[in-house]
Amino acid sequence: MSIVNRARPEIRALRAYQAAEQVDDTIRLNANESPSTCSVGHFRRPLNRYPEVRPLALQAALANRFGSRTEQVLVTRGSSEAIDLITRAFCSAGQDNVVLPSPTFSMYAHYAEVQGAKIIQVPSGPELDFRVDINGVLAACTDATRVVFVCTPNNPTGATIPRADLLRLIEGRSSLSAVVVDEAYVEFGQEPSAVDLVESHPNLLVLRTLSKALGFAGARCGAVVGSPDVLALLSAIQAPYALSTPVIECVEDGLQAECLAAADRAIQDLIREREILLQAVAALPFVIKVWPSDANFFLVRVSNARRIMEHCSAHKVLLRHFGGELEDCIRISVGSRAENERLLQVLTTMDAS
Ligand SMILES: Cc1ncc(COP(=O)(O)O)c(C=O)c1O
Question: Do residue 322 and residue 175 come from a single domain?
Fold first, then answer.
C-alpha cells in the first residue's frame, strides 16, 4: 500500500501551484517577468526569466548519478529542505510523531519541532558503540509514527547501518511510516546506497546531498529519491522555482563526466587522509577513544573537550562539540593535507591534562 495514505489529509488534497506556462519560441507576457536583465553573470538560460518550476535536466542528471529513474528524484535546496518537506507532508501538528536514533543529525528533530510533531529518540549512544538499535527503533514506533529518520553513515558518529538492518527497518514499517535514509556521506563509506531499494519499497525515501562528497555546499542542492507518488506530495508543498538558474547551471556543469571523475578522485584522497589523521589523533595523549568512520569526519572521546575546543579556536582551527551525551566528544572534519597537518600541530601543543 502506498505510504501516501499516511500523509496529512490536507496535503493529500492540496493541488500543486499552477505556475505560468513556459513554452519555447513564444513571447512570454504571462509571468510579470522583465524583458531585460541587469545581471552581469553569464548563464545559458536568460536570467530575466523564471527557471523551470522543477529543473528536469538536472533531475535527470542526478537520477543518472544516483542510479534511479528520473521520476524517482525531487531536487531540493540541499537535503535540509527535503527533511523539512517530508516532515511537513507527513506529520500533523500535536498529533503525529517522528522516531529517530540518538545521537544523529539535529535537523530531523529541529524540523519536527517546527512542525509540532512529537520526537521519539532511541538511544544508540557510546555505550552501544553508536550501533543503531533497529529493534529499539521499531519498538519505539506507535500508531502515530509517520516518519522514521536514520542517517547512514551517521552524523556525528560516522557509523554505518548494515544493509540487512536497514531492510528490516523499512520492511518493518512498510505502509505505516515513511522511512528516510539520509545518505549525506554515503560516498565515503563501504556500503552501497539504498537507492536500488526504492523501486521495491515505496515507503523508502533516500536523501542525497551534493554538499559533501561533490563539494557543492555553497550551491544548496540535494535530492529525495523515492516513489513518484510521494514525491508529488512533497513537490506540492515545495516552493515553485525552488532552484535558481545559477545553481541549476552550476550543478549541471558539475555533473559532467570529467567533473565527476575528479570528484571521485577527491573522495578517495579524502578517505586516505581520514585514515592518516585518525591514526595521528588516536596517538595524542588526551585522546581516550577514536571511533572508526565511514564519513568525511570522525568522532573522538577526549579527556577535556571544552579546553581542546578553546585551544583550537584560539589557534584559528574550528572543531565541533555537541555537549549532552557527547559532552566528552569532539567531531573532527577531515580537511586538506595542509589543514589536517595544522590541526595536528595545534593539538600537539596541548598538554595532556
Ligand atoms: C546527515 C546530514 N544530512 C543532511 C545535511 C544537510 O545537507 P545539505 O547541505 O544538503 O542541506 C547534513 C549537513 O551537515 C548532514 O550532516
Answer: no
Residue 22 within any structural domain of the chain: no
Tell me the best of 81, 84, 105 to mutate to test the pocket of ligand 1, counting ligand atoms within 8 Å of each CB and taking the most. 105
243 burial level (CB within 10 Å; 0-12, 13-18, 19+): buried
Determine whether 314 is exposed, middle or buried from the number of CB atoms within 10 Å of its CB (0-12, 13-18, 19+): exposed
Among candidates 328, 282, 330, 322, which has minimal Cα distance to 102?
Answer: 322
Do 200 and 284 lie in one domain? The reply is: no
- Ligand 1 pocket check for 209: Cβ under 6 Å: yes
- For 33-72, write each residue's pLDDT tens digit: 999 998 888 999 999 999 999 999 999 999 999 999 999 9
> Which has the closest alpha carbon to 295: 316, 275, 281, 311?
275
**Whose Cα sits closest to atom 8 in ligand 1?**
78
Write out the residue range of the structural domain in which residue 122 sits: 48-255
- Is the Cβ–Cβ distance between 158 and 329 less than 8 Å? no
Residue 15 domain-assigned (yes or no):
no
Q: Is-above-0.90 flag for pTM?
A: yes
Give residue-wise pLDDT tens across range 161-216: 999 999 999 999 999 999 999 999 999 999 999 999 999 999 999 999 999 999 99
Q: Is the CB of 184 under 6 A from ligand 1?
A: yes
